[in-house]
Design brief:
heterotrimer, A alpha+beta, B alpha+beta, C mainly beta, A: alpha+beta, 10 helices, B: 2 helices, 23% helix
């Protein structure tokens, strides 16, 4: 056991040690020369013991990547938003309805993404926006559910995020959602995998440091879904969670699992006050 | 700099890379320049190549070429398996004879732009772009 | 025709005669490089947009030859002179023989 811990220790030094500290960029994100985005703000009250300020991952990216997100034409993620706009207006399922039949134009959904995940009183559960989309598809449209991280689903969440851009993330953590939030918090601080690392080891203890050649962010999820230059497509929050947990060399939870729903609520709440940014551009 | 085992290994790997990998592609790049210029002399200056010093991901690297008075600009990534990237031909209604795009770089390497001027002369510019590996799983 | 290919262009709606304007273009396309292998180790054949042109009232603005090193969803930004009111025509040529076109009107004030 001692030996293992030692190895993990060396590994961590290798990851974070001795390399230049990489501050978040001093930069302001103004979307389409119009909407001023909050990429840096006072940490929400529940984080006051661990950090003063919260930063969007945008501030940890290079100049060119940051610029790509500042204009909708330059942001490749908007291609997928356009596709989702088509789906939004397409009638599907046994009830002959589209999303627009009930909700009107997609812009009518402004503000919705900002408060998800959210307690659903009727169902008696915390729901992510993906769960709500599938609930609509199954029970309102009479259509097939989408896979949790399928192309259609991640595109739709990008559309819903895009119409809320500039609004502050504001997920509720009290009341009936509190116990799920507590579950998510516990997961955030629990070390997993052969490397015995928790979310906090990277994103709370070491944000701003270099992890190999990359800037380690606070792991905020206000900007999801994310268009990654690496795989040139939109990536869902739960896919990112899977990647992180996998990198600790642990068996991961699956997308849409109760564990990741709880974690999403908790991590979202760490970014309360940052602007909704999705679809964002990251490396 | 203190020489640790790791840094020695990195140094060794660096020399190996410089010595071997790009040579073949570099030769292909030189051939491409030769066929573009017909072996004519190439001046430095007269064409500007803007590229990031460090690219966060080699998949999507923004670049810009600008050559007032050019009829064509050839862009090459000398270390790619196929060095040819694009050729920009400017028409009668082109204003600045400049263009921006996003390119793929297989690794840290030299990007080269050769401009063919309207008077038949050639100009060259180059930039080294470091392509970083990501933090988690590349 | 490859799936999901959709051209987009950004051109100002008006300009003064003789003005220089900035044009941005983007087309959704995988730009399969021919360098990648599938799960079975077979090379995925190259399938890219190999040429892009922009013309205004029949006169050329730019003519670009693309190779496999152009990123997914090819993006171009360049500048054009607008001598009079008219129409920009944008054309993308796919390896598979497909041709994608888009036009934009511009008025002169």
């Amino acid at each position: 056991m001692m030996k293992l811990a030692g190895v993990a220790g060396i590994f961590l030094v290798g990851f974070f040690g001795a390399v230049a500290y990489a501050d978040p960029a001093e930069d302001t994100l103004i979307l389409n020369e119009d909407i001023k985005m909050v990429t840096k703000t006072a940490a929400p009250a529940h984080l006051s013991d661990v950090m003063d300020e919260v930063y969007s991952g945008w501030l940890f990216r290079g100049t060119e990547t940051r610029a790509m997100q500042a204009d909708d034409f330059d942001n490749p993620g908007m291609l997928f938003v356009e596709q989702a706009e088509g789906v939004w207006n397409t009638v599907e399922g046994s009830e002959d309805k589209s999303c627009a039949s009930c909700h009107g134009a997609s812009e009518e959904m402004a503000g919705v993404k900002a408060v998800y995940p959210k307690w659903n009183e009727t169902a008696g559960e915390v729901r992510t926006i993906e769960m709500q989309v599938n609930d609509c598809r199954e029970n309102q449209m009479g259509a097939e559910k989408w896979g949790y991280t399928s192309g259609n689903m991640v595109n739709m969440t990008a559309l819903l995020a895009s119409v809320s851009r500039g609004m502050p993330v504001n997920v509720a953590i009290d009341g009936p959602a509190q116990s799920v939030w507590e579950d998510g918090k516990e997961l955030y601080y629990t070390r997993t995998g052969q490397l015995e690392m928790s979310c906090a080891n990277c994103h709370e203890d070491n944000y701003g440091s270099m992890i190999r050649a990359d800037h380690l962010s606070q792991g905020q999820i206000n900007a999801f879904p994310v268009y990654r230059l690496k795989n040139t497509k939109l990536n869902a929050v739960h896919s990112r969670f899977k990647g992180c947990v996998r990198d600790t060399r642990a068996e991961t939870y699956s997308a849409g699992s109760p564990e990741f729903i709880a974690l999403e609520l908790y991590v979202s709440s760490r970014g309360n006050g940052l602007s909704v940014e999705g679809p964002s551009v990251r490396n | 700099m203190e020489l640790t085992r790791r840094s020695v290994l990195q140094l060794g790997a660096g020399i190996l890379v410089v010595a071997s990998v790009p040579l073949k592609a570099f030769a292909a790049g030189e051939d491409l320049i030769e066929s573009f210029t017909g072996g004519a002399d190439i001046a430095e200056g007269g064409v500007t190549l803007t590229a990031p010093e460090i690219a966060e991901n080699g998949n999507t690297v923004p670049i810009e070429v600008d050559a007032p008075g050019a009829s064509e600009i050839l862009v090459m990534a000398m270390g790619n398996p196929t060095p040819n990237v694009a050729t920009f031909k400017f028409g009668a209604l082109s204003a600045s004879h400049s263009a921006s795009t996003r390119i793929r770089l297989a690794g840290t390497q030299e990007v080269v732009a050769i401009a063919k001027m309207q008077d038949g002369s050639f100009a060259r510019a180059s930039a080294t772009v470091k392509v970083t590996i990501g933090g988690c799983g590349g | 025709m490859a799936d999901g290919v959709k051209p987009r262009v950004k051109v100002p709606k008006t300009a003064a005669a003789g003005d220089t304007i900035t044009i941005k273009t983007l087309i959704s396309h995988k730009m399969e490089s021919g360098q990648r292998k599938d799960g079975d180790g077979n090379v995925i054949p190259r399938s890219i947009i190999n040429r892009f042109t922009c013309d205004f009232n029949g006169q050329n603005v730019i003519d670009i030859t693309l190779e496999a090193a152009i990123s997914t969803n090819p993006y171009f930004e360049f500048q054009a002179i607008v001598p009079e009111a008219g129409e920009f025509k944008f054309t993308w040529y796919d390896d598979d023989g497909s041709v994608y076109e888009e036009t934009k009107e511009i008025s002169v004030s």
